Amino acid sequence: MTAVFPRPSITQSTASPWRRTKSALMTSALALALVVAAVPLVLIIAYVLAKGWSSVTTPGWFSGDIPILSRSEGPGMGPAITGTLMITGAATAMAVPLGLLGGIYLNEYSAGSRYGKVIRFFADVMTGVPSIVMGLFVFVIWVLSFGLSAFAGALALGCLMLPIVIRTSEEMLKLVPSELRESAYALGGRKAGTIIRVVLPAAAPGIISGALLAVARAAGETAPLIFTIGFVNQANTSLFNDPNTALSTQIFKNANSVFPGPVARAWGAALTLIGIVFVFTILARIASALLARKHQP
Amino acid sequence: MTPTSLNESLMTPTNVAAVTEPIDDRADAPAEVVFAVRDGAVDYGPNRAVDGVTLDIASREITAIIGPSGCGKSTFLRCLNRMNDFIPGAKVSGAINYYGEDLYGPKVDAAEVRRRIGMVFQRPNPFPKSIFDNVAYGPRINRYQGDLPELVESALTRAALWDEVKDKLKKSAFALSGGQQQRLCIARALAVSPDVILMDEPCSALDPIATSRIEDLMVALKRDYTIVIVTHNMQQAARVSDRTAFFTTDVDESGGRTGRLVEFDRTNTIFTSPSDSRTEGYITGRFG
Questions:
Q1: Do residues B102 and B7 make contact, with C-beta atoms less than 8 angstroms apart?
Q2: pLDDT in tens, B35-68
Q3: Is B123 on the interface with A (CB under 8 A)?
Q4: CA-closest candidate to residue B234, choices B276, B198, B277, B280
Q5: CA–CA separation, B9 vs A220, rounded Å?
Q6: For the whole model, what pTM was predicted?
Q7: CB within 8 A of A125, min separation 6: which ones?
Q8: Interchain pair B137, A182: CB under 8 A
Q9: What residue ranges in A200-288 does DSSP mark as E strands?
Q10: Which three-class secondary structure state does DSSP give residue A115?
Q11: Interface predicted TM-score (ipTM) of this complex, two decimals
Q12: Between residues 92 and 121 of chain B, which touch chain A (CB distance below 8 Å)?
């Protein structure tokens, strides 16, 4: 005959009441931290919207030239929008393929090699280099010989983007399970074909996100552009010739003014830039989600 | 059935290795030897992972490799299709002949070796592609010129998966259950028409029902293919295999672990009257 022990109800916790209180307190503290972190972001967007909305909605904002007399009022940021798209586009076209190839080399080909370690180290160092130094570098190697141009700005931004793309592609490729590579090899696959047909598609969503991070960062850079592209008031669609302008440098220039006209244009340019980065982010999110979802159950 | 030489495309003299005399002069010696291994050994850097493997793997039979964890079963299996080439510091020594040719000869194309000698892994690892594209991957990279849908259907049929997936070939391979994914991996391996299939614990991630389907499939496949399977499951080895190799681990004075082949014989003999006491100890559950 077995002894019958009283079985306490499972609602009677042996933990102290203080434990529940602590849990509630910490959860609220974490929620509060999130709110605090979001406050600056929300304020920035709200303030830029409030200040820039009237400029952006004035007819001619997106297409008109920038007023030649800088203290005059009224719209026109067309040249800067063209410039930002051109410069960021050219920088992306240079940095993303090169960075992707670099990331592939580091993760797939350089296993344990000294050369790979050196490259990885310098990519890390380059990520931390202040952007103005990149501008100075391009100023010396390019602008002094060939003059100010959109391409010079793209070179500077490309230098900024390159290490980010290299390191994020490498990290994303590292996440591709080695079983996937092995199963391709076990079917008679060769290394290059396996990377192109199996490894890259598997890593594509992450690589796109990483590249976009770099694009978004480059689009907002001001310092490296100031002495590589210069300033113009009319759109310059030539990539290699003559000075150009960009939203970020226009914000810098106009916001320094004491007159209400240029200040309003600076707010408008800020809102436009945020909008462009926002649209790019959404597009890349969609692209990477489509790729990721393509073969999920 | 001796396939064309691995060196054929290279137009060089074949590197026929010196070791061809059989190790087995008994009546049940294999009629045709696919792999002849003599003193096979694998080093990972300074450590010898597997040593002293001498065995013949017979054509169109299922050869099982059993033994405790860490005894080098998988390492040895991966020598047979040169998968160890990808592990930095791994070095294979001794002689491993495939239909009389040195598998590690200087002129051998390792990718061609792996096409002839397919592999199924422990965890089902389909590509993140559709079911069709998974099976079609191998033929495509090997520039298959024939009717691809027909080939995919026949590979899936041979892997006993066709009826379950024929209406959803465009669906992601990840939509299948674990057992179906493993059969898909087998179909994928069959699609490049290998003559050997190496299986590295193919059922260890599957439930008993899926396991039994894979085992039935193996038995069906051995009419056309030579199969070498590494398994932790002794009942599985006893159920499906024709011959069994038992590996064990020796620990030397400095703590280094080296896997060794203890005994290789007909599965029936291994499980009923093993000649080595270590084999008997393992199969009766006394160690390992």
A1: no
A2: 999 999 999 888 888 998 999 999 999 999 998 8
A3: yes
A4: B280
A5: 56
A6: 0.81
A7: none
A8: no
A9: none
A10: helix
A11: 0.83
A12: 111-112, 114-116, 118-119, 121
